[in-house]
Amino acid sequence: LRIDEKVRVVVFKSEVKGVFCAGADLKERAKMDDAEVAHFVKRLRNLMDEIAALPVPTIAAIDGYALGGGLELALACDLRVAASSAKMGLIETTRGLLPGAGGTQRLPRCVGIGLAKELIFTGRQIDGQQAASVGLVNHSVSQNDKGDAAYQRALTLAKEILPQAPFAVKMGKLAINRGMEVDIASGMAIEGMCYAQNIPTRDRQEGMAAFREKRPPQFTGK
Length: 222
Prior knowledge:
The chain is an alpha/beta fold. It has helices at 26-30, 34-52, 69-76, 103-111, 113-122, 128-133, 149-161, 166-179, 184-198, 202-213, and strands spanning 10-12, 19-21, 58-62, 65-67, 79-83, 87-89, 126-127, 139-141. It folds into two domains: 10-161, 2-enoyl-CoA Hydratase, Chain A, domain 1; 166-213, Lyase 2-enoyl-coa Hydratase, Chain  A, domain 2. It has ten helices and eight strands. It starts with 9 loop residues before the first strand and ends in a 9-residue tail after the last helix.
């Protein structure tokens, strides 16, 4: 996905009705020794980092339960859409654990430190509507008969992104992600570097030409 230039947006969805991702299999985990658990969680954390580092926008379509590592997967995505009936939470403390695949870092960056601490300390589950009200998800939608309302909304969102200049979108994502980790002056420098990379692109010239000629732009990602 990272190297395929035809990929413009990645949507994560589940094939299991009512469940986005229920997290780790604790029965499987119980058979592991301490070293195996540490290795497993490290690999899982690395996977989430790989997803977060994908250059194109990513959208999690949460049509059911997103618990523990399942919510950490959604948090590794750029955007999240949830059915109002979906349930999500970092429930690790209810099982004698703490989030280990990015949850302690990505949740506070998403909803703020105070609320993230409350949700992690209590292991509370919230529904899609509550998640939207606190900014955990971008959109909450009523579930449909097929059970894929969030996925359908995610596709609509993806289709809004698709017509835009691919390289500009990638640079925008990079500038946001890198800039959020530093002070604003450093962030401005990062934005400047990303913008400089976009200046020589054909798509920038196409965007200007399309504006002058009053027609839709035809971006190629070059």
